[in-house]
Structures are given as structure tokens and as C-alpha cells.
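Hi R.,

As promised on Friday, here is the backbone we talked about, encoded as C-alpha cells. Could you run it through your design pipeline when you get a chance and send me back a sequence?
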């Protein structure tokens, strides 16, 4: 799976590879560069193929609804639909869309249009925002539903280098996966595999380099028992 962030600055309305710089307007991909961007994505698919790697899926944009101050691009639902309808077929790979910061009804309903739904393969969304319900209509039409990024307890806005404690983190992590399973997602993808906050330790903050972390063991339990089992509902006070 590949998820692109920013594009060449000259293709953007704010002339920056970032989605939005301080004091500047949001950067959208210029319509006259849609064909260039489709070729840009397809060139990467072909580059990997020529080097022995067959890419399963490629996203159009990482978090198109987040005006970040780093590499990114803002897409309206109309812009995303236009690109998918007119240019996605030029990319020789399965397509993930929209990869929004949450699983919002706005993008899901827009992608459910008759002239759009045939031009992507997987509905992807992140778990940082609300998980609404319109995406399930896409699942009913045969689209796979993927939660393609989630990262908790990474100290992004905190002073400490490691801002979580295990007694809380274990349940927060398991609850996040379970929430998506109960909401009919077919896949749950963490932000990083090998990091001290990932599935495999990197040697930082008490983890052993290359060793499965506690979080990895929780994830492994879900993987081991996800199929061929019966879930039993319960309540815990």
C-alpha cells in the first residue's frame, strides 16, 4: 500500500508542497495538472513493477481534508470525485480513496455516485475523526473498507518524550481496533510497524530492537482470532 502526501509545488494553488503554510491559503491540486498527477502516481506503480515489486494498492491522497503545515494537499469532495472519474483509470493499480482524516459521510456519499464508484476499489479512512456510517453503503456495493492509519500516544503535542502509560494504553489500543471491527472494516493499519509505539520495538524508550512489543501482541491476538470465530457480546462495568 502506498499513500502519497505532497505534490510538486508548481502543481498546487498555493505553490507549495505543503497543504497550508502559516498565513497562506490552502493548497489544492490545479485541475490542469490532474493528468500530470495521474501519470506521477502511475510512474511509481511502474517503477516498482520494473524492480520486482507489484503494488497492491495506491491512494490518491493522504488526508485530503486536513490543511496540514507539512507535505499535503487539500481536496474537496468534488475535486476528488472529478479526479477519480476522469483520471483514476490511467493508474494501473487498485485505488484507495479518500483516506480522509476521519470516516466522514461527506466523502463517502460523494464517492457513492454512479459515475464515480466504478473508479476506485477500496474505501479508506483514518480513525482520528468520527466514524460515521455512510461508508457502509460502499461496502454494500462490494467495496472493501479499510482503516488505513491510526496513531495514538505519540506525544505530538506534549512535552514528554513518551506520554502514555501501559495500564491505559493497552485498553485504548485494543478498543480502537475493536471499534473498527464492530463497524465492518476489512482492514486496520497502524501508522508504523517498527517503532517504540508500534508492533515491533526499535530500541527506544524501553523497547528491544526487533522484539514484539506489548502492542504487537495485542494486535497479534486480533489477527489470530479474526476469522472462523464467533464474537460474544458482553458489558464490563
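Update: got your reply. Pasting your designed sequence below so it's all in one thread:
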Amino acid at each position: 500500500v502506498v499513500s502519497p502526501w505532497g505534490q510538486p509545488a508548481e502543481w498546487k494553488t498555493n505553490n507549495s508542497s505543503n497543504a497550508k503554510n502559516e498565513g497562506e491559503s490552502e493548497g489544492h491540486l490545479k485541475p490542469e495538472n490532474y493528468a500530470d498527477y495521474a501519470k506521477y502516481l502511475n510512474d511509481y506503480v511502474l517503477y516498482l513493477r520494473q524492480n520486482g515489486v507489484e503494488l497492491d494498492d495506491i491512494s490518491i491522497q493522504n488526508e485530503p481534508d486536513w490543511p496540514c503545515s507539512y507535505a499535503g494537499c487539500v481536496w474537496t469532495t468534488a475535486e476528488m470525485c472529478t479526479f477519480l472519474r476522469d483520471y483514476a483509470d490511467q493508474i494501473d493499480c487498485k485505488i484507495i480513496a479518500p483516506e480522509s482524516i476521519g470516516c466522514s459521510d461527506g466523502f463517502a456519499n460523494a464517492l457513492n455516485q454512479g459515475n464515480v464508484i466504478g473508479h476506485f476499489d477500496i474505501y479508506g479512512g483514518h480513525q482520528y475523526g468520527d466514524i460515521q456510517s455512510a461508508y457502509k453503503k460502499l461496502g454494500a456495493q462490494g467495496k472493501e473498507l479499510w482503516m488505513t492509519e491510526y496513531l495514538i500516544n505519540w506525544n505530538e503535542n506534549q512535552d514528554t518524550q513518551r506520554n502514555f502509560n501501559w495500564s491505559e494504553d493497552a485498553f485504548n489500543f485494543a478498543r480502537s481496533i475493536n471499534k473498527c471491527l464492530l463497524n465492518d472494516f476489512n482492514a486496520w493499519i497502524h501508522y508504523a510497524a517498527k517503532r517504540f509505539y508500534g508492533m515491533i520495538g526499535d530500541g527506544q524508550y524501553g523497547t528491544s530492537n526487533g522484539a514484539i512489543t506489548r502492542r504487537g501482541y495485542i494486535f497479534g491476538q486480533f489477527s489470530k482470532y479474526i476469522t472462523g470465530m464467533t464474537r460474544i457480546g458482553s458489558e464490563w462495568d
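One thing I noticed while checking it: Residues 34-50 form the longest helix (17 residues).

Thanks again,
M.
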